[in-house]
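Team,

Forwarding the record for the chain on the shared tracking sheet. I've put the sequence and predicted structure together so nobody has to dig through attachments.
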Amino acid sequence: MNHEQRLHFGGLLLVLLLAAYGLLWYGKAYQPKLIPSGIATITSPVASGITSEDSGAIKEFSSEDDLRDFLLAGGGDGAKAEFSLATGVARSAMPMAVPVAADTFGMAFAEEASFDSSAGSAGGTPDFSATNVQVEGVDEADIIKTDGDHIYALVNQDLYIIDARPAAEAEVLTKISFKNRPQDLFLSGDRLVVFGTDHDFVNRSDYHFRRYSQYTFFKVFDISDKKNPSQVRDLRMEGNYNNARMIGDYVYFLTSNYHYGIVEDEPLLPRLLSGTDEVSPEGKIYYFDLPYNSYNMTSLASINVMDDSEEVNRDVYLLEGSQTIFVSENNFYITYTKYMDDYQIEVDVMREIIEPRLSAENKQKVATIMNAESYVLNEWEKRSKVMQIFERYASTVSEAEQKTLEDQLMKRGKEKYMELADQLEQTIVHRVAIDKEHLPMALWVLSLAV
């Protein structure tokens, strides 16, 4: 078998499987149905009671060491990412993670909100317009906020506090300038939150960390004296700002570190700084029972903007790149769409058809590869090496035997797709209830297939 024939043989089954996938998808695209993969309501977001294989269940690392081992081992079944201790940068090419998108999904859960929108004035009807929000009771950040008498506005790198009553006599009471351009505001009583990307931090002379990352600043001001506001909190969070919501006195703040790497002698989790001091917030580390093709270390911090003495609570989620987070008043939702792994099906079919024909020596090689520890070979590497053995075998048989193999592979591949028709695409939704102080307190898992 020449090179062109080997390529044809190796790719023919995959083409057939993809075609079968398209036919099945066309017939099922408008028929979503619930897969009974399990529902759990628990006091800790560890997915007890969910036993389906590769269910996307949320799990907890017992320590940072466990997280380190997980990353170095390739991040679970199917992971293609490899991490470098020396550089902290993934060696393999991986797609950028999907940004957090909390602005559409929350509408579907708006009925959970119990916020009384008439509370803004004694007469029951507010006499000023607040930020337009998609879920009542869940405040969204904006560049302009008002309390009815004053306007708080971000303009370039400046924050203006404006006395707006009466309008004809409006005046600027205070201007606060920032080294980095603020992105948005939250307003809660006499507290004003300002946050944005800290572009200069890693270039400062006192920056002594080995890991170079993006940082996000989060500042809280006491504005009880509008002419002389005072900064009461100065936080920096390692990672890119993704989204935030304010519920009551708490801001729930999401930052993400894409393609997160490991650097020796550096903390594994994203840093949290108060002023120049590094702090270790309470919280847990979670991951998901699913194949990781890329990594997104997402931190969800709970910050009490009214009580400066209360420590920040933070949980960290190791997300797969295609996972997305949404927020409503009482919950946040982590979604993941699991697609059929065509290459894995191709490997499985070839193992059924070709592996029994191999010599004892090659059968032992396949067994050794598949049983290798994940820190030696990840699942992607195992499959690639096994496929090489199968292709070498196919190149040694006659053209008639090759034709027989192709027919058998096609037939079994089609049967396999029909068997797995309900798993062509599954959307898994985790609902994690927000406790105002302790973040996740419950888990609800929904699996949909189309």
